[in-house]
Structures are given as structure tokens and as C-alpha cells.
Amino acid sequence: MSGGSAGRAPVLNIWDDHWDFRPEDCPCDVDFVAWLDEQGIRDASIYHFGTGGHHHVGIECAKPERQNHVLAITAAPREHEAFVQLAVSRPEVLRFYNAVFGDIYLINEQLLPEFDVVTLFHLCEFRGAANDEYGALTDLDVTRILTRRLRPGGYILFFPGSFAWDRTNDSAKDVVAEWERDGGVELVGRFKSLIVYRKAP
Ligand SMILES: C[S@@+](CC[C@H](N)C(=O)[O-])C[C@H]1O[C@@H](n2cnc3c(N)ncnc32)[C@H](O)[C@@H]1O
User: Which domains does the chain have, with CATH numbers?
Assistant: First the structure.
């Protein structure tokens, strides 16, 4: 991550990278699409944290056999440029898939519709002091906001294969445990590399 103000006005903590399709290193997106298919989830509204430059979730969800509606976020300008090229060359994908550029830690609840499914695979991976400089939300704040925007009975999925899942400090596992203590969600179980929770109906 870049960022840091050192006496300057704070700037956005972007992800100055471009993640290609590498399911052997990071299987979460591929496993997520497999989970959607296993559940028979079609025509659902999905919030997806971390598009990658490949935009796999959006492209797969836009296929006629799925037609899931995906709002995704990337903090990587180059990944967003890849989305613009995708949208221009494949309007049939754009109909179902919108990727916004931004920092999920600035997520605005009033701008969000209600979702059937939320993915938070990269929880705790990229937030740091540079986000604090502009008063960004925490990982727990983001998880709570997206849980509020989840419809009753909707699903929220995490990725325990993440490097941030069970590290010593600031682990996603601890955030999820605290979020679980809020109540109103139940563990459904594991699917491949993912953990699936459900909001109480
Ligand atoms: C390692 S890539 C993984 C992409 C994809 N989910 C995959 O597994 O192939 C991490 C993704 O998280 C996004 N990201 C990192 N920090 C972010 C932030 N603060 N807000 C939104 N997206 C962020 C990056 O832009 C990138 O798309």
C-alpha cells in the first residue's frame, strides 16, 4: 500500500498493484463462484470486496446461467482501468457488474442497496495507519455496516486462507469473532477455502 501524509494533507491509501487471475495463490473468488453454483444462487445482489484485475466474480456472475448482480470495490487504479476496458468491450457484463474505485474503509451505508450475499475475503489485509490519517472506518465497522445492508437470511463469506486471518495482531479471525458476538448471524460452515455465515431470517 502507498499513502502516508508526513505533514501533507492525507491522500487515499490506494493498492498500487494489479492482481492477475491466480487461483492457485488466492482461490477465494473461484471458490465463491463454485459456492454460488452449488447453492443455486441466481438473480441475487452481491457485494464483493476486492475485484482483482481479472474481475472474475463480475464476469462469471454476468453469465446468462447466473445473472447475479454484483457491486464490487477495488482500491487499485490499474484494476479499475481494467474494469473500464471490460465495460467498454463487454456491455453485457456491465449490465450485471459494477466495480467502483475506492477504499472500503470509506464505505457509505446510505449509498448501499440491500444485498443477498456479501464477500469480505480481504478483511484486515490492507488497512493501516495511512487509513487512520483520513478517519477511515475499521474492519469491524465495515463488517457491521455490510451486515446491516444484508437482507434477513442473506449470506456473508470470509476467507480463512487470507494471510490476515489468524495472524498475531489485527487478525480477521478476531474481527469476525467480535462481530459474531454482536449476534444476529450464524455459522453455516465451510465451503472449500471459505467460511459461510448467514444473517438470521
Ligand atoms: C490480492 S487482490 C485479490 C483479488 C481477488 N479477490 C482474488 O482473490 O483474486 C486484493 C484486492 O483487494 C483490493 N483492495 C485492497 N485494499 C482495498 C481497500 N481498502 N478497499 C477496497 N479494495 C481494496 C485490491 O484492489 C484487490 O482487488
Answer: 28-199 (3.40.50.150)
> Is residue 136 within 6 Å of ligand 1 at its C-beta?
no
Ligand 1, from 18, 80, 98, 122: best to mutate by most atoms within 8 Å of Cβ?
122
* Predicted model pTM: 0.96
| pLDDT (tens place) for every residue of the chain, 201 residues total | 454 556 789 999 999 999 999 999 999 999 999 999 999 999 999 999 999 999 999 999 999 999 999 999 999 999 999 999 999 999 999 999 999 999 999 999 999 999 999 999 999 999 999 999 999 999 999 999 999 999 999 999 999 999 999 999 999 999 999 999 999 999 999 999 999 999 999
Taking each helix axis from N to C terminus, what angle separates 172-181 and 139-148, rounded to the nearest 10 degrees? 50
Whose alpha carbon is nearest atom 4 of ligand 1?
52
**DSSP SS3 for 101:** strand
Is ligand 1 within 6 A of the CB of residue 123? Answer: no
Would the CB of 122 count as within 6 Å of ligand 1?
A: yes
CA distances from 12 to 84, 120, 132 (A): 20, 20, 10
